[in-house]
Amino acid sequence: MLNKKQITNIKTSLDIDSTGLPLVFQALGDPGRFNIFRMLIDKHDVCVTDVANVFGITVSAASQQLRILERLSLVLKVRMGQMVCYELNKENSVVKKLIQFLRSN
Fold first, then answer.
1. What pLDDT sits at residue 21?
2. Sheet holding 75-80: strands in order across?
3. What contacts 42, CB < 8 A, 6 or more positions away?
4. Of all residues in the chain, what percent carry a pLDDT higher than 90?
5. What is the DSSP string of 26-80?
6. What is the value of pTM for the model shown?
7. Which residues touch 39 (CB under 8 Å, ≥6 apart)?
8. CA dist 92 to 7, 40, 60, 65, 98, Å?
9. CA–CA separation, 40 vs 104, rounded Å?
10. Structure confidence at residue 17 (pLDDT)
């Protein structure tokens, strides 16, 4: 049985609110967003219209899905004139680990 000090240490190490991992898993739990994320692993600077065409969805729907990934700092928005493109945020440690995991499987 755990003592009070062990319980406190476990609670501190499981400070889920500060990591944001549940939100990342929730976002990538959606098959559409997960597939967009996977596509961005191999393709760089993918525009919203390209995402819409690849997945057979509207530009508005693609933009909405990418916006969710952007809010979680998984992707970065890149403006190219009037076009809006996205790339993975490879500075994000979670993104680095996800890329490594997905490439190994």
1. 82
2. 46-47, 83-88, 75-80
3. none
4. 72
5. HHHTSHHHHHHHHHHHH-SSEEHHHHHHHHT--HHHHHHHHHHHHHTTSEEEEEE
6. 0.81
7. 46, 51, 54
8. 30, 14, 26, 19, 10
9. 16
10. 52
Rounded Cα gap, residues 105 and 96, in angstroms: 15
Tokens of 26: 């929730």
Classify domain 21-104 at the CATH topology level: Arc Repressor Mutant, subunit A (1.10.10)
Is 2 in contact with 10 (CB distance < 8 Å)? yes
Residue whose pair of structure tokens reads 């700092």 in the numeric block? 73
∠ Cα 50 42 20 (to 5°): 90
pLDDT digits (tens, 9 = 90+) for 9-63: 887 766 645 567 889 999 999 999 999 999 999 998 899 999 999 999 999 999 9
Residue 66 token pair: 């990418």
Per-chain mean pLDDT for the chain: 91
CA dist 30 and 99 (Å) reads: 17
Give strand pairing partners of 46. 86
